[in-house]
From TrEMBL:
Protein name per Swiss-Prot or TrEMBL: Haloacid dehalogenase superfamily, subfamily IA, variant 3 with third motif having DD or ED/haloacid dehalogenase superfamily, subfamily IA, variant 1 with third motif having Dx(3-4)D or Dx(3-4)E
Chain segments annotated as transmembrane: none
Domain of life of the source: Bacteria
Gene3D superfamilies attached to this UniProt entry: HAD superfamily/HAD-like, Putative phosphatase, domain 2
Stretches of the chain forming a coiled coil according to its record: none
SUPFAM superfamilies, A to Z: HAD-like
Native organism: Trichococcus collinsii
Length: 218
């Protein structure tokens, strides 16, 4: 039986991926590094610290990881303030349908907890969720299973009875490693991620509800 649905945030609930990609590219350019947009897709679903530590080593960036994370956050926040946060089309009605059916919901995101709370308040969806967990709060970030195992435990749910909503290769791999069923969301506005480990792949949320999620478990 379906015991909980666990949502990633960036690229699933809010359309933040363009802001992440632009801020990463802009900061690298300050160090004289030009990258193709596609280069950054590999880091979707990972923590900021992991991403910048990897890029620092790859490009020999002359700055501490913490400074790189903070500078990228400043750029990204400025871009988001200029353009405003937008939800992924159809996802908020989907969340409301699940909540109305009594399904416990959590957000399990690699983003900092402050960013998670800021986003859900901006979209007025905090009321739908019983638990929030950040990649900062677990020992190992996605694609390790820690974040979804943590969310399931705190919702008193068995991982195998949870459905995860993810949009990235790392996130889908994390859900798979946790033993959860996974709905892989493919955003047609971006080059496709490898979502092959997902239980099912969708391109919109308009037809999804609690019955759909239950069918994945049953």
């Amino acid at each position: 039986m379906l015991e909980a649905v666990l949502f990633d945030m960036d690229g699933v609930i809010i359309d933040t991926e363009p802001f992440f990609l632009r801020s990463e590219s802009m900061l690298l350019k300050e160090f004289g590094v030009d990258t193709e947009l596609e280069y950054h897709f590999r880091y979707q679903g990972t923590t900021h610290e992991y991403m910048w530590e990897t890029m620092k080593n790859e490009f020999n960036l002359d700055a501490p990881v913490g400074e790189l994370v903070e500078r990228a956050n400043v750029i990204r926040n400025r871009l988001m303030e200029e353009d405003g946060l937008q939800p992924i089309p159809g996802v908020i009605p989907f969340i409301a349908r699940l909540h109305g059916a009594g399904v416990p919901l959590a957000i399990a995101s690699s983003s900092p907890l402050t960013d998670i709370h800021k986003a859900v308040k901006a979209l007025d969806i905090e009321k739908y969720f019983s638990y929030f967990v950040s990649g900062e709060s677990v020992a190992h970030s996605k694609p390790a299973p820690d974040i979804f195992l943590d969310a399931a435990e705190n919702l008193k749910a068995n991982p195998e009875n949870c459905v995860v909503i993810e949009d990235s290769r790392n996130g889908v791999a994390s859900a798979h490693a946790a033993g959860c069923k996974c709905i892989g969301f493919r955003n047609l506005d971006f080059p496709p991620q490898d979502l092959s480990l997902a239980t099912v792949i969708v391109t919109d949320f308009s037809d999804l509800d609690a019955a759909y999620c239950r069918a994945l478990i049953d």
